[in-house]
Amino acid sequence: MKEETKNTVINIQDLHKGFGENKVLNGFNLQLLEGENLVLMGKSGSGKSVMIKCLVGLMEPDSGKVEVLGREISTMKRQELDELRADIGFLFQGSALYDSMTVRENLEFPLRRHTHKFDLENTDELVLEALNNVGLPHTINMMPAELSGGMQRRVALARALILKPKIIFYDEPTTGLDPITAKEIILLMLDIQKKYKTSSLIITHDVDCARVISNRMILLLDGINYAEGSFEELSASKDPKVMAFFK
Length: 247
Ligand SMILES: Nc1ncnc2c1ncn2[C@@H]1O[C@H](COP(=O)(O)OP(=O)(O)O)[C@@H](O)[C@H]1O
Ligand SMILES: [Mg+2]
Hints:
This is Phospholipid/cholesterol/gamma-HCH transport system ATP-binding protein. It holds the Pfam family ABC_tran. GO terms for molecular function: ATP binding; ATP hydrolysis activity. Residues 10-247 form the ABC transporter domain. By secondary structure, the protein is α/β, with parallel strands linked by helices. It has one domain (35-46, 76-246): 3-Layer(aba) Sandwich (Rossmann fold), CATH 3.40.50. The chain has 9 helices and 10 strands. It has helices at residues 48-55, 78-85, 103-113, 123-133, 149-161, 179-196, 207-213, 231-235, 240-243, and strands at residues 8-19, 22-33, 37-42, 63-68, 71-72, 88-91, 167-171, 199-203, 216-221, 224-229. Helix 6 (179-196) links the parallel strand 7 and strand 8 (199-203). Helix 3 runs parallel beside helix 5 (149-161). The longest helix is centred in the C-terminal third of the chain and has 18 residues, at 179-196.
């Protein structure tokens, strides 16, 4: 069989970002390939969120190149950035559902923000399809407070999927969940990757999550991509700094 050359959907090169004396990213590199699950691990405060903000144009890098879906973020106008964000799904830490809205309204919210991409007449169909993907069609008229933590996370995942994004960012998708629910979420993430061929960037501290989900991993340390490789490669490393991630 002919080997496929995969496209790069995110390309970060030599990214620098600091706040005064605090040099957070100091020549960081990352490539996300089409269809892969890339896990990024880094200690709390190491700059993972700063990197994500640079990726979606919420923060301006001091220097370096940041390209998403073939476009340089720094050259994009506000409206172009908005449109790009419709191609990116987010699953934030926690679930960040709107408490005062029903599940249906929570899922309709991104559709209303990106009307250029979707026709608002068939939202019911899209909402149900997204809820079916996470096994929760019966919750459509419920309020977030009526759902368990794991169900809330799944609804948040459905909301991230509803725009049929090309890329999904997961920020600590299993933090705060019991091990069984965490596993359910991980299996859902794998299903979604298979079904929609999404490219995913997954930020996690959870070694089990990284083992199951990653095609490749990057360790962020001292502002750089300190180590890269498969879970098997990195977890077998004899470098004490790398070993510390797998404790
Ligand atoms: N807007 C900001 N102004 C000043 N410092 C910031 C800002 N955002 C993040 N930082 C600093 O950048 C560092 C990395 O933060 P962050 O990216 O949130 O870490 P994490 O890897 O836990 O997501 C921290 O030292 C934080 O205090
Ligand atoms: Mg963070």
